[in-house]
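seq as requested:
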Amino acid sequence: MYYEDGRFARDKLWCFFTLNYLYRRRNQGQSNFFYQNILGADPPSLEELQSRIQQGDSTAISKIMYFSKNIPGTSAYWRAKKAELYSWISHHVEQGRGAPTVFMTLSCAEYFWPDLKRLLEETILACEGRKVDLDLHHNELSKAINDYSIVVQEFFHLGVDAFMKTIGLQVFGLKHYWGRFEFAKSRGQIHLHLLGIVEGVASEGGIYEQVYNLRNDKDKQTEALAKWARETFNLTASLDTNVKVNPNTQICSWFLCLYCWLFLR
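struct tokens:
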């Protein structure tokens, strides 16, 4: 993918062919291990397995389903990841830190960042030997983002790391978090869904306890949550109608408050 002239990064099929090849080789090795070690010292033949299944013995099927969690993309793989997330949540609850307080989505916004455009221009120059100004040619920018998506994704990973070390940890107070990177046509190149635990929410007198004690008074619950959001995130739902507010900032603030409220309920 990082070859000097970019031929593999730009190819639309090569990455899929290579990924398929890697998975097939990996699965072949794992299946040999499974056959020799999981099914026992005297593995049954295919006919014997079919006979056992017909007689209601699904032990071998259960072993296959469990072992297939090692194969990315399978149902068993995602069930295992879901179980890992539940274990992570349960661990922090047992440690007195509470359940996740915040859910947020970090989007790439690949058409926005000047630094990303500069990196793509440098990549095009190095790989194709031509200079382009991606600010002036939108079609070229779109093509570069798709041809060199590996640059976009690495830029996003570094951006997420910088965000979590500064805004996430220092401003939002997220001491523990769990995230999943995803790709979707409607969401751009790459995005991240993240669960975070804000420090102190589950301590004595914290927002969890306050909301629980006010469970019979929704108005006071709302006041407590609003006060906590203002003090923790510097957010507010009270706007001066005489001040022009960026609608995108306003929407983001409302959504963050909504997610906090949903989790704290």
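The CA atoms of residues 116 and 155 lie 7 Å apart.
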